[in-house]
Amino acid sequence: NAGVTQTPKFQVLKTGQSMTLQCAQDMNHEYMSWYRQDPGMGLRLIHYSVGAGITDQGEVPNGYNVSRSTTEDFPLRLLSAAPSQTSVYFCASSYTPPRSGGVYNEQFFGPGTRLTVL
Amino acid sequence: AQSVTQLGSHVSVSEGALVLLRCNYSSSVPPYLFWYVQYPNQGLQLLLKYTSAATLVKGINGFEAEFKKSETSFHLTKPSAHMSDAAEYFCAVTSNTGNQFYFGTGTSLTVIP
User: Fold this and answer.
1) Is B45 on the interface with A (CB under 8 A)?
2) Do B32 and A101 touch (CB under 8 A)?
3) pLDDT tens digits, residue range B3-17?
4) HSE toward the beta carbon, residue B63, CA cutoff 13 A
5) Which chain A residues are within 8 Å of B101, Cβ to Cβ?
6) How far apart are the C-alpha atoms of A47 and A67, rounded to whole Å?
7) What is the pLDDT of residues B7-46, one digit of tens each?
8) How far is the C-alpha of A12 from the C-alpha of A86, rounded, in Å?
């Protein structure tokens, strides 16, 4: 299994440009999520999905869109990039949603995408 | 609402010394608690998790954590630090009613030779 993959690894955008960060997992995980990591702020949840066709907002959703048309893929779209969106973005997945407990809600993280908006 | 607080954004220990990283949680329902480690330029990987089965949880690389309900704490310890333990450590909480994980702000561990 490749686990959770993210592309690209690095990206530089100009203010106002749009782009899509790709995330894919091959573990048949039901739950997928996007986080941004900023110095001194830990990881903050942007959007999450509990299954294909179902998405919801996290803590910091403004300026980002997501969709989940398949179990495997969960792309994150920046509609009009702003310097405040300069960050490292992580995609994560788990077999079941966090509330399920047991052994199935462990999140597996991708390697991250480092985004700079000029 | 749930949250975690990690006391100390930077911790330095000597090689061979005890590692203690602090995490306090806030949750109105029984929590699930996690510790993740992040090595430079990598994603996060799970160290250990508490899901109410046992209060003392053992993880990978010799780390363990104890859930103390009375103190609302889930501190991470390791008896003897290795140079390879230098990394960023994150505490996270969720619950049996939630769809989200909440992460702390992280603690950067430095190991001094």
Assistant:
1) yes
2) yes
3) 899 999 999 999 999
4) 22
5) 33, 45, 98, 107
6) 10
7) 999 999 999 999 999 999 998 777 889 999 999 888 999 9
8) 9
